[in-house]
Each structure stands twice: as structure tokens, then as C-alpha cells.
Amino acid sequence: VETELGDSASLLSLYRRRGKLWNKSSALRYGQVEIINTGHDSVLGYIRRTTDETLMVLINFSKKKVTCELKVKPGKLLISSNPKTKSHSILGEQIQLSSNEAAVFAERMG
């Protein structure tokens, strides 16, 4: 645990960041769920929406890196299970996900 406390890429750090996001996000806790087409059978995509917040969640269950073609432009990357994922993985309506990666994005409005 001592080692993971100081490592921003550790599983412990990921769970702490996820917990903070969960606690402050009404959309993740209470939002309506809308399944979205990701263009891949191995990628689950959905939007959680409340009147004041909209988030997009993508989960790649594949052992391969994939590029999802979405009809919704994602906004800011809020959290990812892959510490190497950065906003440059988003190209318009395309998002690259590493193998077994899960990511949460703020939905870009407009």
C-alpha cells in the first residue's frame, strides 16, 4: 500500500480518482442511461445524463486496441483505467481505447 500511495498510475490511485468522480457526479449516481453505438461489439458505450450533467462511459472488453466511431463528440477525458491515455486519443468523433480500458468523458455541448 505504501508504494501505491505515491504512484499516480497505481490501481489504488485509480480507485480513489473514480471514487471522487462518483461522489461529485450526479450523472454517474442518478443519471438516465442511454446505450450508444461504438462501432465495436467488444466496446460498451453509454451516456449517463441528468439535467445539469452528461457523461460518456466507454469500456473496451477486448484484448486489442480499438478505435471507436461515435456520433457524439466526447468532451474532456475525466478518468481512464490506462494512465497513458491522454486527450490526444480523441480525434473528432473517434476515440482510441487500449485493451481492457475504461474511460469517462464529459460530453461536449454544442
Structure description:
This protein is of the alpha+beta class. It contains 3 helices and 8 strands. The strands form 2 sheets. A 5-stranded antiparallel beta sheet has the order 1-2-3-8-5. Strand 2 (43-49) and strand 3 (54-60) form a beta hairpin. The protein is globular and about 40 Å long. The protein starts with a helix and ends with a strand. The mean pLDDT is 82.
Helical content stands at: 10-25%
Number of strands: 8
User: Helical region count?
Assistant: 3
Q: Unreliable segments (pLDDT under 50, ≥5 consecutive)?
A: none
Tell me the fraction of residues in β-strands, as a range. Answer: 35-45%
Query: What would the principal axes of the Cα set say about the shape?
Result: globular
Mean pLDDT: 82
* Alpha carbon gyration radius: 14 Å
User: Helices and strands: which structural class?
Assistant: alpha+beta
Compressed to H and E, one letter per element, the order equals HHHEEEEEEEE
Question: N- to C-terminal separation?
Answer: 43 Å
Spatial strand arrangement across the major sheet = 1-2-3-8-5
Biggest sheet descriptor? 5 strands, antiparallel
Task: Provide a short characterization of the protein structure.
With 110 residues, this protein is α+β, with helices and mostly antiparallel strands. The chain has helices at 2-5, 11-24, 26-30; strands at residues 32-36, 43-49, 54-60, 66-69, 74-80, 90-91, 94-97, 102-107. A hairpin with a 6-residue loop joins strand 1 (32-36) and strand 2 (43-49).
Task: List the keywords.
single chain, 110 residues, alpha+beta, five-stranded antiparallel sheet, three-stranded antiparallel sheet, 3 helices, 8 strands, 21% helix, globular
